[in-house]
Design brief:
The longest helix is centred in the middle third of the chain and has 22 residues. The N and C termini lie far apart (71 Å). The protein has 3 domains: 159 residues, DNA polymerase, domain 1 (Orthogonal Bundle); 77 residues, Double Stranded RNA Binding Domain (2-Layer Sandwich); 176 residues, hpI Integrase, Chain A (Orthogonal Bundle), CATH 1.10.443. The strands form 4 sheets. Strands 1-2-3-4 form a 4-stranded antiparallel beta sheet, sandwiched between helices. A 3-stranded antiparallel beta sheet has the order 7-8-11, with no helix packed on it. It is built from 17 helices and 11 strands. The protein is α+β, with helices and mostly antiparallel strands.
Amino acid sequence: MSSTGCRASPPPVSSTPCRDGRADRLTLLQLATKAPKPEETMRHEKFEKTKVPGLYRLTDGTGRWWVRAAVRVEGQIVQFKKLLPATNPATGAPYTVAEAFTEFESLKQQAKAGKPSPAPEPTPLPQDDARTIEQYCVRWLSVRISRLSPSTAVSYTETINDRILPRLGWMACRNVTRQAIESWVVWIEAARQPRTRTMTRDGRDIAYANPNAGQPYTQDTMRKWWRCAKTILGDMAADFDIKNPVARVRQPERPELPQVREQRTLDTDGTGDLLTAARQLYPQHYACIAAMTMLGARAGEVFALKWDVVDFKSGRITIRRALSKGVLREQTKTKAQRIIPMHPELAAILLEHRQKQIADQHPGLATGLLFPTDEGKLRIPANLKKIWPALAAAIGSEVKLGSQVLRRSLNTNLVMAGVDRITTRALLGHTSEAMTQRYAGIGDEAKADAVLKAGPRRKAVEPADGAPRNASATRAGPRDEG
């Protein structure tokens, strides 16, 4: 493929994406993913402290400052944050320490006066001159980023950097063909997991060994990449008024991978044994595990629970917050709150948990969190990662336990108990019937019992005079006559 605006041949791409030679691309994408919400930017940007309290310098090479002012107003801590632009609008030069400190003092005075923090300036959009897919991805992401949750923004950025640009980024937007997308799908299906992975914790990237190194990616992971690429290329086709290159292209598939998701559930006896083991082995996490088991909420929703949504009088809990990439958000994944009646046992457990927090004067009382860390901060799902194998061994279960397993288990047990699907969706917060059906892990024993119940039934037939009565003939199916 050769045309104006694209190179004659694509750069060599190995099975493991490499970032060498992509410094400009990554810088553009990093600038495009500056979310205008300061609380989200603080989470994903690396920064370093300075000698001046309240002033932090970003380490992304832009020379920008992060200003944070916290004052006590009427017994409460009021905290304002502001991400300064790369240059001072008044001088046209980068902010100096003195100018940044002036902004800090202004923000501090606003906090004392109780005035709202000024809205951050929106990220300037790139010029509408995208010629290659790489340039279009930068423009597309800069427009979308302000409306995405932190986790979705990170997922889109990683997919674009690691899966779309290495293979398609060099191509001109108007010259992308269906054959090129088919080739990309084949490349995706042949990808293998790397030896190491990274996770972000407290603003730092931590590398750890990947236990599935060399294995193919799961079907869900490949479909996540496909949805992102399909959305970007579909928008590109609409913007340039060209044929959609992803039309009539099948999504990545790996049929040889077994689907074992539905077997990873616990029945009611299993969940009862789990709570007994949790109280004996990990009493400090007992209330949290009980909430996951009996509410069926997502892990981010459980860790975002505050006491203001727990109503012991009416026996209800309102799910209206969620934790996303370590950021507490005032909305759930589906952007809709739901009310869940508490099981009497769960209400008693949470009441005991609350009384213990008050008696111990737990640091988390100031934040109002149900399940904070020992320092009173937000807890993340990774904090419970080490206890699940011990609990599985204690109850003699081969299921790889986790918060999502408990959510699926409640889904399955509700279906097995005969609860109608509408009620099940309302309790679990599913947005579609297909999602409820997907997470219903019906086991082999339940399936076998259902087959027996749905088998043919024969009416009793009176035998002829003198013929022996055969009881089995009335229950069994038709027999071959020789």
